[in-house]
Amino acid sequence: MHKERLHFAWLILIGLCVSVGLGKAALNNSAGLFLSPVSQDLNVGVGSLTIYLSVSSIVTLLFLPFGGKLLSKYSARLVLFFAIVFQAGAFALFGLMNSIWGWYLLAIPLAIGGVFITVIGGPVLIERWFSKGKGLALGILSAIGGLLGVFAQPIIGALISQFGWRNAYFITGLGVLIIVAPIILLLIRNSPKDKNTKAYGDTSTDIDPHKQIQNIEGISYTTAKKTPAFFLLVLFFFIITAISSFTMHVPTYLVNHGQKVSIAGAMMSALMVGVFVGSLVFGYLTDKIGAKKVGLLAMILGLIATILLIAMPDFIVVVAVALFLFGVFTSSIGTIAPAMASSLFGSKDYSQIYSTSSIGLALASIVALPAYGFIYDISGSYTTGLIIIILLFVVNIIAIILAFKNKEKLVKEGYWNSKKKGDLNG
């Protein structure tokens, strides 16, 4: 018997883990480390400087639908190569800036590159390359990204302290570009037909790659975008991101309830462990029992976590358990959200459907974070915000149930068919 070779899909996943992981951990998530030193050196307010993050979020929101079209039309390898040049290049160029206008302008290529590297590239390629094990692949991608963040943050902090913020921008941006660009060129391929093979786990007898493309199942984008299920998916994305944004306020919430800052910081480690565990567990369960059941499970765990935070914020053990569960829920952004899009609408026009519905993610990141802050400023407490979060969990549970009911209706009406040319109007 000959030994079966490693399927190329796993090499794709390795390439994505490095590319997406470093794009998120080293470039996106390290932004906060630079705010204080940059604002002090340039003598500008932190608030004025952070406007560039809002610019980046708005560009992401506007570019997402266009990004999905580019990924469906052009080679993913070339698109992701230019994306990392944009994202990492803009990050490195921050080190040359002497005015906050530089951050505002560079936020545009930073966000355009980030749309592909950190938002849609991973889920779209996993959808193309994995016929089975999609959930596990998404879980591994999400977990590795979180793990890289654990190492990247202290390293970048040390670079700022040792070499100054300008050199830290250079080293980080160019370092990511030098690592990621060759990996994208070597390991990333657009689809299985580029390697004259089938997706991992595809048991179909059709070996002609052109016929495989024709037989991809699902609901077309023109049909999907007009359905209640699509709007409910956007709502689902918005709510899970809005709720997850509260993690930025957790340390303040704990300190307000008598915990020391050091304890609050340690408690955040429980949340990070939850994200790591949740990514792998949700990814595995999605393959076994489906995105709908796992999505409902995630909402219930998040609901329990929020109730515990409201009820017993003074008990360290309870808080640790609550934050672990909250972290498990938070991992649903990288695992359940893309799996939900696939489960509801299939693979046919996945890149456009996922990228457009991801507008919910981008919109929530703009709105939710300051909203919790305003609620705290007005009421002097985060309790109102947490009660709103409980209501959002309930809304999301209802949204999941209704979205899959609408899918059943669409399937019965014949729209889940790669050969159907009409849309809802035809």
From TrEMBL:
<feature type="transmembrane region" description="Helical">
    <location>
        <begin position="229"/>
        <end position="249"/>
    </location>
</feature>
<dbReference type="InterPro" id="IPR052983">
    <property type="entry name" value="MFS_Riboflavin_Transporter"/>
</dbReference>
<feature type="transmembrane region" description="Helical">
    <location>
        <begin position="318"/>
        <end position="341"/>
    </location>
</feature>
<keyword id="KW-1133">Transmembrane helix</keyword>
<feature type="transmembrane region" description="Helical">
    <location>
        <begin position="261"/>
        <end position="282"/>
    </location>
</feature>
<dbReference type="GO" id="GO:0005886">
    <property type="term" value="C:plasma membrane"/>
</dbReference>
<feature type="transmembrane region" description="Helical">
    <location>
        <begin position="168"/>
        <end position="188"/>
    </location>
</feature>
<protein>
    <submittedName>
        <fullName>MFS transporter</fullName>
    </submittedName>
</protein>
<feature type="transmembrane region" description="Helical">
    <location>
        <begin position="294"/>
        <end position="312"/>
    </location>
</feature>
<dbReference type="GO" id="GO:0022857">
    <property type="term" value="F:transmembrane transporter activity"/>
</dbReference>
<feature type="transmembrane region" description="Helical">
    <location>
        <begin position="138"/>
        <end position="156"/>
    </location>
</feature>
<keyword id="KW-0812">Transmembrane</keyword>
<dbReference type="InterPro" id="IPR011701">
    <property type="entry name" value="MFS"/>
</dbReference>
<feature type="transmembrane region" description="Helical">
    <location>
        <begin position="49"/>
        <end position="66"/>
    </location>
</feature>
<dbReference type="Pfam" id="PF07690">
    <property type="entry name" value="MFS_1"/>
</dbReference>
<dbReference type="InterPro" id="IPR020846">
    <property type="entry name" value="MFS_dom"/>
</dbReference>
<feature type="transmembrane region" description="Helical">
    <location>
        <begin position="353"/>
        <end position="376"/>
    </location>
</feature>
<keyword id="KW-0813">Transport</keyword>
<feature type="transmembrane region" description="Helical">
    <location>
        <begin position="382"/>
        <end position="404"/>
    </location>
</feature>
<feature type="transmembrane region" description="Helical">
    <location>
        <begin position="103"/>
        <end position="126"/>
    </location>
</feature>
<feature type="domain" description="Major facilitator superfamily (MFS) profile">
    <location>
        <begin position="9"/>
        <end position="408"/>
    </location>
</feature>
<dbReference type="InterPro" id="IPR036259">
    <property type="entry name" value="MFS_trans_sf"/>
</dbReference>
<feature type="transmembrane region" description="Helical">
    <location>
        <begin position="78"/>
        <end position="97"/>
    </location>
</feature>
<keyword id="KW-0472">Membrane</keyword>
